[in-house]
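Bumping with the actual sequence this time:
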Amino acid sequence: MLTRVRLTLVLLLIVAHAPVLQGAQSRPGSIAELALYQGSDRESILIEGAKKEGQLTFYTSNTWVAGPVSQEFEKKYPFIKANVWRSDSKALLKRLTEEHAAGKYLADVVETSPEYVNLLVRASLLQDHFSPELSAYDDEAKVKGKSGVLAWTNREIYISLGYNTNLVPAAEAPKTLKDYLDPKWKGKMAIAGTTTGTQWIGAVWDTMGREFLEKLSAQEINVQNMSGAALSGLVASGEVPLSPTIFNSNIFTHKQKSAPVEWRPIDPVIAGVGSSGLIVNAPHPHAALLFLDYLHSKLGQQVAMKGGLSSARNDIGSLEQKFKKIYMESKYTPEEMEKKFEEWEGLMRKLFIRKR
């Protein structure tokens, strides 16, 4: 009888402590386990870990995400410092691959265009991860992993004509690609010398052919070795009267500051999609996952939209864009895109840089 009582007590103790034991066993240990963890205590675990980490490093190719979005994240989580490095997509890829080859893991989160995300996926540089915000995004916005996602869309912006209204009246501003050939624009236009300008060269080549680009080169277009975002600043200041390689989001923010600028969609309007993901072996995984949650949250996307960006969330009213768009990143495979970029860059050097 005594033995039976003792056995019953032991069983009761095991049952009573089972949840505790199971909770301890299910608590994530590795970065991979943490990234895919879906327990009810996920947020508390991330916050606890992020407080110890104190920071995260974020690589992005978008100025607004690098600035206001990251700053608002720091306000929500004041115990996390967001170290941001902003450059064009090609430079981001180069830096990440070189760091990986050297065995250095400095970045936690990367945000860039889809074709470069695909290259990062092929190089096994992105960590499969989960977020409770995923349910607000359609499958087409996700690069799926085995159990979660490797990357997912967090913004969409458009490249076309930006001009200074003090120097270029709206009635006179180009309305079609052929209008760029008007002699009155000779020596007054500029294009970004980075990925933005290269994509535009490719889109025009695909749409109008090389002969048109050769005619355009006679317009003495200045190739500025800067991002489209930086070039928009020169348009706003009047240093550059007009440029066909300007993001609508940058003109949106300049207008909020009462700059004399306008943006006009001229076919082909290039749609630039931004996707983000967790880097393999991220040194600050807790903070990184909190950042990805925030970036894709309704609040984070509303901050992004204040910068003129469009959102892929299916529960938020995004900016309405009725013009025709071309998605260069999805038009070609990563291998084809790599070759195309080399061709377009070569054409830019030959027709617009060496000629001057």
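The tokens above came from a reply further down the thread. Confidence is low (pLDDT under 50) at residues 1-5, 7-25.
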